[in-house]
Design goal:
Enzyme class: hydrolase
Low-confidence stretches: 8-17, 131-181, 306-323
Keywords: Cell wall biogenesis/degradation, Hydrolase, Periplasm, Signal
CATH architecture of the largest domain: 3-Layer(aba) Sandwich
CATH superfamily of the largest domain: Zn-dependent exopeptidases
Strand content: 15-25%
Protein name: N-acetylmuramoyl-L-alanine amidase AmiC
Structural class: alpha/beta
Bound molecules: zinc ion
EC number: 3.5.1.28
Oligomer: single chain
GO cellular component, one term: outer membrane-bounded periplasmic space
Distance between the termini: 89 Å
Length: 463
């Protein structure tokens, strides 16, 4: 007995020494997701489980204690109502997350990286509710009635094909146009780099890349919302981190036609300046700067974390998928038009599209480009990046490039493929513009026309 007591006494200081400390708990919240990050003094054994009525998620950490009080507010999370903790006699620290809705939790550990310690990340995703869709699929059947005796005059803002179909119908009948006849929108996935845990690069004045790129992304999204036949999907809408593979998956879920990742990175040399456009290269980087930047971008995985369960078969598909060649060509062409647009805004870092191994560009079937809008490490460019006006100019340049590409390469089932006009004798450019209710400038831009000269038989794309 004596020996046992002696043994236990020896064990106590060992246990006290081995205790893991939770040094901080941080909360990042988005629309449907909330992320908890626990900063730890050492790796920890843990388990996570859910409880219902009321909805709770419990995190048990073995041999752990809290050194900081838990955050008192839930950081505007729509999911997380509160946090509480209890020390169990078994040395387990129990953290209870009180939820407003049912949610599922995924947890994973991160090793120390740069100024980050060991971390345990718990991602909460709301369940039992369909993800909100901005443009729900239209299921309502629309009905157009043509009045008897109507002269069927061409409506000025209708596509020619549509007019033709209506004309062929006998008068005084009802035409039922099913929603599926509607051309689909071109979906542009806009990926504001970094976020949450991962601030991205930081300028000499302290400007964080994650903030300026989100502002530019939001401006681009607003432009795309107003653009006929196009629809933006924001990969991240607030200040939270999304894993690089998750960004790709998100774009794929929305069936994106283009993935555009927006960044503003730092370089070792403060004088480095200008914007660059990158596409994926599996073989190697096109320059030292390209290699350096790709390395930095991919570091996000260590800072913001990647759930290892999400890795795997997608990567295998990337290497095997035969569609990669055409995706690569499309990426290069879009990158070219984007670079041309950016040249009008200011300095470009390189006259050509750059190649590097950015993980976020590895979609096998979605053309993907990454824009380094500027070097945040350059004091002049840092100031520009903070300016609303400059952010807007960058967004304008991007939408011009996107527009130019998709008008030149209209996808078959989209709105853009439907609006074309074949020049007849007597047509003028301004007459055509008026007929389709578009501005002369939009018409010139969509067709890459400098002046007003058109020829009989020319096919004009109507924006
Ligand atoms: Zn970046």
């Amino acid at each position: 007995m004596k020996r046992i007591i002696y043994f236990l006494l020896c064990l106590v200081p060992v246990l006290a020494f081995a205790r893991v400390q939770v040094q901080d708990v941080r909360v990042w919240s988005a629309e449907e997701k909330t992320r908890l990050v626990l900063d730890l003094s050492a790796p920890v054994q843990h388990r996570v489980f859910t409880l219902a009525s009321p909805h709770r998620i419990v995190i048990d950490l073995a041999n752990t204690r809290l050194t900081q009080p838990l955050p008192s507010n839930s950081h505007n999370s729509k999911l997380l109502r509160g946090l509480r903790s209890a020390n169990k006699s078994t040395g387990i620290l129990r953290i209870v997350l009180e939820l407003s809705h049912a949610a599922r939790a995924k947890s994973f550990s991160l090793k120390p990286y740069k100024n980050h310690s060991h971390r345990l990340v718990v991602d909460l995703t709301r369940t039992g509710k369909k993800k909100s869709q901005k443009n729900p699929v239209q299921t309502v059947t629309t009905t157009h009635k043509i009045k008897a005796g109507s002269d069927n005059k061409t409506p000025t803002n209708s596509a020619p094909q549509r007019v033709k179909r209506e004309k062929n119908q006998p008068k005084s009948t009802t035409i039922v146009a099913a929603a599926r006849d509607k051309p689909r929108d071109i979906v542009i996935a806009i990926d504001a780099g970094h976020g949450g845990e991962d601030p991205g690069a930081i300028g000499p004045q302290g400007t964080q890349e994650k903030q300026v790129v989100l502002a530019i992304a939001q401006k681009l999204a607003r432009l795309l919302e107003r653009e006929p036949g196009m629809r933006p999907v924001m990969i991240r809408t607030g200040d939270y981190y999304v894993g690089l593979r998750e960004r790709i998956n998100e774009a794929r879920q929305h069936k994106a036609d283009l993935f555009i990742s927006i960044h503003a990175d730092a370089f070792t040399h403060p004088k480095a300046r200008g914007s660059s456009v990158y596409i994926l290269s599996e073989k190697g980087a096109s320059s030292e700067a390209a290699r350096y930047l790709a390395q930095r971008e991919n570091e996000s995985e260590f800072i913001g974390g990647v759930n290892l369960n999400e890795k795997g078969d997608l990567l295998a598909r990337v290497l095997l998928d035969l569609s990669q060649t055409s995706t690569h060509e499309a990426s290069l062409e879009i990158a070219d038009t984007l670079l041309a647009g950016l040249k009008n805004v200011g300095q470009v870092h390189s006259q050509h599209v750059q190649h590097a191994g950015f993980a976020v560009l590895k979609s096998p079937d979605i053309p993907s480009v990454l824009i380094e809008t500027a070097f945040i490490s350059n004091p002049h460019e840092e100031r520009q990046l903070r300016s609303q006006h400059h952010q807007q100019q960058l967004a304008n340049a991007m939408i011009n490039g996107i527009r130019y590409y998709f008008y030149s390469n209209p996808l078959p089932d989209t709105f853009l493929a439907q609006r074309r006009h074949i020049i007849n004798r007597g047509d003028t450019l301004s007459g055509v513009a008026q007929h389709y209710d578009v501005s002369l400038n939009q018409l010139r831009l969509a067709n890459d026309l400098k002046g007003d000269r058109i020829q009989v038989g020319d096919i004009l794309l109507i924006p």
